[in-house]
């Protein structure tokens, strides 16, 4: 693969692969955490390392698909965890690649669930059937139903204008001066990120706890 590209040049790499699911921390088995880390984090790292020699040679671009969920979580902490990790990987890589003329960009979409279908709706029965006996002893079906309804309502509110994210990716690849981060999100989503970044953790916890209780 590398020998083929070395003869024609190689300009850009977009790390877009990702999977998502919903569930409180104890609801998900360790195998799920390992799978998510492997796809969302290590998959991007493996691909980047493979193409790094060519990207340095041709002074190319590396684009990573993150999410505003890297800043906070609303029931999908496993996805948030992987996006926060890829952000830190990119921060280190961006600084290291400057001396080679390689630019590293992060795309941070808001809720585009209706565009990407990355997360299908989950029924309470599906979630309940996967819980361990220990978790079933702590939670009840009514709580699981409430959480499922909440998360599915968020999915239904997702933007269908996926072209907005694609436009950001194109700009990251082609602009003479690309941004380090492209936040493509609704105003209320950007406001959540703003609160998370600038206010004490206790304030953000209160905001998210209120949202989760609605």
Automatic annotation (TrEMBL):
Tell whether Transmembrane is among the UniProt keywords: yes
Keyword annotations for this protein, in alphabetical order, are: Membrane, Transmembrane, Transmembrane helix
Q: What InterPro entries does the entry give?
A: NAD(P)-bd_dom_sf, SDR_fam
Under the heading Pfam families, the entry gives: adh_short
Q: Which parts of the chain span the membrane according to its record?
A: 62-79, 191-212
Coiled-coil portions: none
From which domain of life does this come? Answer: Eukaryota
Q: Which family does it belong to?
A: Belongs to the short-chain dehydrogenases/reductases (SDR) family.
Q: Which PANTHER family does this UniProt record tie to the protein? A: D-BETA-HYDROXYBUTYRATE DEHYDROGENASE, MITOCHONDRIAL (PTHR43313:SF43), SHORT-CHAIN DEHYDROGENASE/REDUCTASE FAMILY 9C (PTHR43313)
Question: What is the recorded name of this protein?
Answer: BDH protein
């Amino acid at each position: 693969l590398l020998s083929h590209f070395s003869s024609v040049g190689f300009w850009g790499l977009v790390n877009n692969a990702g999977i998502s699911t919903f569930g409180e921390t104890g609801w998900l088995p360790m195998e799920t955490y390992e799978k998510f880390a492997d796809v969302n984090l290590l998959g991007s790292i493996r691909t980047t390392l493979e193409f790094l020699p060519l990207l340095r040679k041709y002074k190319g671009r590396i684009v990573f698909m993150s999410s505003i969920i890297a800043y906070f979580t609303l029931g999908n902490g496993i996805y948030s965890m992987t996006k926060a990790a890829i952000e830190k990987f990119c921060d280190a890589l961006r600084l290291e690649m400057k001396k080679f003329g390689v630019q590293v960009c992060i795309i941070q979409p808001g809720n585009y669930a209706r565009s990407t279908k990355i997360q299908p709706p989950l029924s309470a029965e599906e979630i309940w059937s996967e819980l361990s006996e220990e978790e079933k002893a702590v939670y009840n079906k009514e709580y699981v139903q409430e959480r499922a309804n909440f998360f599915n309502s968020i999915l239904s509110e997702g933007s269908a204008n996926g072209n907005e994210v694609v436009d950001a990716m194109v700009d990251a690849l082609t602009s003479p001066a690309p941004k380090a981060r492209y936040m493509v999100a609704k105003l209320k989503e950007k406001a959540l990120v703003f609160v998370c970044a600038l206010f004490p953790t206790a304030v953000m916890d209160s905001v998210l706890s209120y949202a989760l209780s609605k």
